[in-house]
Specification:
single chain, 18 helices, four-stranded antiparallel sheet, six-stranded mixed sheet, alpha/beta
Length: 588
C-alpha cells in the first residue's frame, strides 16, 4: 500500500508524516480554498459596483441589474461549491489517515515487549485507541482545511480593500494582527488545558479500568473506599482543569465575536475621514460585508483552530510515544511469508548461556538446557527464582540474551517469530478467557466453526472438564462470561490445558497450570495428557506440585536464576540440600 512506502521515509516526526503524506492532496485542498476565497471577495466588489451604479442611475434596471445579481449569486455559489469540494476531499483524506494510523497502531500493539519497563498502562493504551487516533485524524479532515480557509481571507482582504476603496489598509492590518495575537496567546494557554485534560482523563480511565477488572477482589479485601478516593481525586483534578479551560475558551470566543464589529467601526471611520463627502454607499457596504460577513468567522475561529492543532499535536505525540515502546521487531525480523506447518511430534530443544536482566537486576544467569524430543521436564524452585521467565524466554516474550537457541537443530536467531511460536502450546499462569462460549475459548477463535466439536470435546475430556460434573448444561455453547467470571480457578486452568491440547503443537509449555487442581484431578490429567496423549510431545512444566515430579523424565531445580540441580527427582532429592529444603517447605 502507498502509506507503507511513505512510512519508510526518514521523517522522525509522526506529525510531519501525517501532514506531508499525499502532499498533492493537501495542495489540492489549498487551491480549492484559494479559489473559494477569491470568489468570496468578488461578491462585495460587484455589490459595490451595483450599489454605486444604482444610486448614480448608471445601471440599466432591466438589463445590467440582472447581470450584477447573477454575478453576485454566481460567485457566492462558486465559493460555496469550492468549499464543499475541499471539505469532501479533506474528509476522504482524514479517513485514509485514520485507516493508516489504526493499522500501524494495531501492528505495534501485536509486537510490544511484555517486559518493557516503560510500557503504557491498559488505561493509557485504551485512551490512545479511543481518543488519540481519532483526534490525530482531525488534523487532516478538519483542522488544516479550516486553518487554510480562515487564513486566506485575512491575507487577501487588504488587497480587496485597496481595490474597492482608497484606504491604506495598514492600520486595519495592525488592528487585525493585534486581536489575533491576543487570541492566539489565549489559544496557546487553551492548548495546555486541552493537553492536561487528556492526561487527567487517561489517568482516570486507568484507575476505573483497574477497578472494573478487579472489582470482586477489591470488594472482598475491603479496598473499595481507597480506590474510590483515588478515582474521585483524579476526577476533581480533571474537573478543575476543565473549568479553567471553559473560562479561557469563553473569553476567546467573546473577543472573536466582537473583533469584526470593532474593525468595522475603524474601517468606516477611516473611509469617512479619507473620502469625506465623496464616500459612496457601495464602499461602505463592501467594507461592512468584508469585515461583518467574510472575516467574522476567520477572526473568531482561527484561534480556536490553533487550539485544535495543539490538541492534534499532543494526540499525535501520544500515538508516537505508544509506537516508540520497545517491540519484538527490535530483536526478530518479522516476515510476511506463509508459515510452514510444524510437525505435531515433539522437538529437540537447546538453549545455551541464557541470561536476562530487568531494570539492572540479573534474573536469569547463564542457563543452559538441552531437552530431548518427547521428554517430560519439570522446572521447580522458589517463588521468583525464574521458572516462568525460562518459559517466556523460549517464546521470546522477554528480552533475554543467549549464546545459542535451537529447535530441532535449527537456529532461532533469524527465525520468524511467528514460526518460532508455532512450535509451542503455552499455558500461562494468568489464564486468558475470552468473553464468548466454551467452544471459542478452547479453539481460541471467535465464532469458531462447529465442524470440529468432537475434537474440542475430546480435548476437554482429557483435561478432565466434563459437562455433567461441571454442570455445563449448554455444552460448547455455554457462555463463559467476561474474563471467565462464570468459571472457577480450576475450571479456567482445565480450559487452558484443553486449548493447548487442541492446538496440537510439538512443544508444550505449562506454567504452574496445576496449582488450582486437586490431587485426584491432577492424577487423571497426568494419565490422559501429560504422560498419555502428549507422550509423543516435548513437555516442559514449571510447577510447585510435588506429586507430579516423580512422573517427569527429569527435574531442573532453579535458585536465584541459576540451574543448580538437573536429574531424576529422587536423585536430586537425595543429593541436594537445596531440593530437600524446598520440598520440606512445600510439605509444611
Amino acid at each position: 500500500m502507498e502509506y507503507k512506502i511513505f512510512f519508510n521515509l526518514k521523517i522522525k516526526s509522526l506529525f510531519l508524516k501525517i501532514l506531508l503524506m499525499r502532499i498533492h492532496m493537501r495542495f489540492f485542498v489549498f487551491i480549492m480554498s484559494l479559489i473559494a476565497t477569491v470568489f468570496s471577495l468578488s461578491v462585495p466588489y460587484y455589490q459595490k459596483e451595483f450599489l454605486d451604479g444604482l444610486l448614480k442611475n448608471s445601471v440599466n434596471i432591466s438589463h445590467e441589474i440582472i447581470i450584477f445579481l447573477l454575478l453576485i449569486f454566481g460567485f457566492s455559489m462558486l465559493s460555496q461549491l469550492s468549499v464543499f469540494i475541499s471539505k469532501i476531499f479533506s474528509y476522504f483524506e482524514g479517513s485514509y489517515i485514520q485507516k493508516w494510523l489504526s493499522h500501524e497502531t494495531y501492528s505495534k500493539t501485536l509486537v510490544l515487549k511484555a517486559d518493557n519497563p516503560k510500557k503504557m498502562s491498559a488505561g493509557q493504551a485504551l485512551s490512545v485507541y479511543a481518543t488519540d487516533v481519532y483526534t490525530a485524524c482531525t488534523l487532516i479532515d478538519d483542522v488544516i482545511p479550516n486553518i487554510i480557509s480562515y487564513i486566506l481571507p485575512i491575507l487577501l482582504a487588504p488587497v480587496a480593500i485597496i481595490i474597492m476603496t482608497s484606504i491604506n489598509p495598514m492600520l486595519i492590518i495592525v488592528v487585525i494582527l493585534s486581536i489575533l495575537t491576543l487570541n492566539c496567546l489565549m489559544a496557546i494557554k487553551q492548548g495546555k488545558y486541552f493537553f492536561h485534560n487528556k492526561m487527567f482523563a487517561a489517568i482516570r480511565i486507568g484507575h476505573v479500568n483497574e477497578w472494573l477488572q478487579n472489582m470482586r477482589v477489591i470488594r472482598m479485601l475491603g479496598w473499595t473506599e481507597s480506590l474510590e478516593k483515588k478515582i474521585k481525586y483524579s476526577r476533581i483534578k480533571e474537573t478543575n482543569n476543565r473549568l479553567a479551560m471553559v473560562t479561557n475558551g469563553s473569553t476567546m470566543n467573546s473577543i472573536g465575536y466582537s473583533a469584526p464589529f470593532f474593525i468595522n467601526i475603524i474601517a468606516v471611520f477611516l473611509l469617512i475621514k479619507l473620502e469625506g463627502n465623496k464616500i459612496s454607499s457601495g464602499q461602505i457596504f463592501s467594507l461592512l460585508w468584508i469585515f461583518g460577513v467574510l472575516l467574522t468567522r476567520p477572526l473568531r475561529m482561527l484561534p480556536i483552530m490553533l487550539v485544535s492543532i495543539t490538541d492534534c499535536y499532543t494526540s499525535i505525540k501520544r500515538v508516537q510515544n505508544y509506537w516508540n515502546q520497545e517491540t519484538e521487531k527490535d530483536e526478530v525480523q518479522m516476515k510476511n511469508n506463509n508459515l510452514e506447518n510444524t510437525n505435531s511430534e515433539g522437538c529437540d530443544l537447546e538453549i545455551k548461556n541464557l541470561s536476562y536482566k530487568y531494570e539492572g537486576k540479573l534474573l536469569l544467569d547463564n542457563i543452559s538446557i538441552v531437552i530431548n524430543k518427547n521428554e517430560f521436564v519439570a522446572i521447580i524452585g522458589e517463588v521468583g527464582s525464574g521458572k516462568s521467565l525460562i518459559l517466556q524466554a523460549l517464546l521470546k516474550i522477554i528480552s533475554s540474551e543467549c549464546e545459542n537457541y535451537k529447535i530441532n537443530n535449527e537456529s532461532t536467531e533469524n527465525m520468524d517469530l511467528n514460526k518460532l511460536r508455532s512450535y509451542f502450546s503455552y499455558v500461562p499462569q494468568d489464564i486468558f478467557i475470552v468473553n464468548s462460549n466454551l467452544r471459542d475459548n478452547v479453539a481460541f477463535e471467535y465464532d469458531y466453526q462447529k465442524n470440529n466439536d468432537n475434537e474440542i470435546i475430546k480435548c476437554l475430556e482429557m483435561s478432565q472438564f466434563n459437562f455433567q460434573t461441571e454442570n455445563i448444561k449448554l455444552g460448547l455453547n455455554t457462555e463463559i462470561g467476561e474474563r471467565g467470571v462464570n468459571l472457577s480457578g480450576g475450571q479456567k486452568q482445565r480450559v487452558a490445558i484443553a486449548r493447548a491440547c487442541y492446538a496440537n503443537c510439538p512443544i508444550i509449555l505449562l506454567d504452574d497450570c496445576l496449582s488450582a487442581l486437586d490431587v485426584n484431578t491432577e492424577e487423571k490429567i497426568n494419565e490422559s495428557l501429560l504422560n498419555g496423549h502428549w507422550k509423543n510431545k516435548t513437555r516442559i512444566l514449571a510447577t510447585h506440585r510435588l506429586s507430579i515430579l516423580p512422573k517427569c523424565d527429569r527435574v531442573l531445580f532453579i535458585k536465584n536464576g541459576k540451574i543448580v540441580e538437573n536429574g531424576k527427582f529422587y536423585e536430586i532429592y537425595e543429593r541436594s540440600n537445596y531440593v530437600r529444603d524446598f520440598v520440606s517447605t512445600l510439605s509444611e
